[in-house]
Structures are given as structure tokens and as C-alpha cells.
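Bench notes, afternoon.
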Amino acid sequence: VLNFKRVKPVSDVWSIAATFYFMLTGAPPRETPKGVDPLAAVLGGLSIPIRARDNNVPKPLAGVIDRALAVDPKKRFQNATELRDALAKAMH
């Protein structure tokens, strides 16, 4: 958002995982305190582990989503193919 010219596929991984997180829990992965710009939460907050929101999410799937939402981009899946493969493995 702040430097879109340097965005890499790892940013898309976070966005995809955030979408899955919302689909599974009905809540965004990061809290947005009242009166705080939601963009600030996305840029600087920590994600709440998905099983803290919904303990019914299977552990293997939760692990994939939580990793894809890591603050440090180096700890995330580096592209959509890696994320897809991890999701497929978690769902079997």
C-alpha cells in the first residue's frame, strides 16, 4: 500500500490468507480498535491466530493460514503456488 512498486507475490499470499481467514471466521485477521484507521491495523498489527477466533478450524489448515499471515514476509509462503500446495496438503 505504501510502496506498491516494490510489492512482491508474498504480499498477495497475505491477502489471499486474509480472505480465507475472513471466510472461515467472519472476522478480519487483525483487530481494528475503535477510532483507529483500519489501514493502520493492516500495516502494523499482529494477526490473531485463526483457532483463537474459531477452534473448529482444523489444525493443519490453521497452520497454513497463520503462516501465510506472518508479519515477516520471509516466514510466509513466497508465492501462490507454495500456498496452494500447502493448502492441498493440509486438506488431505
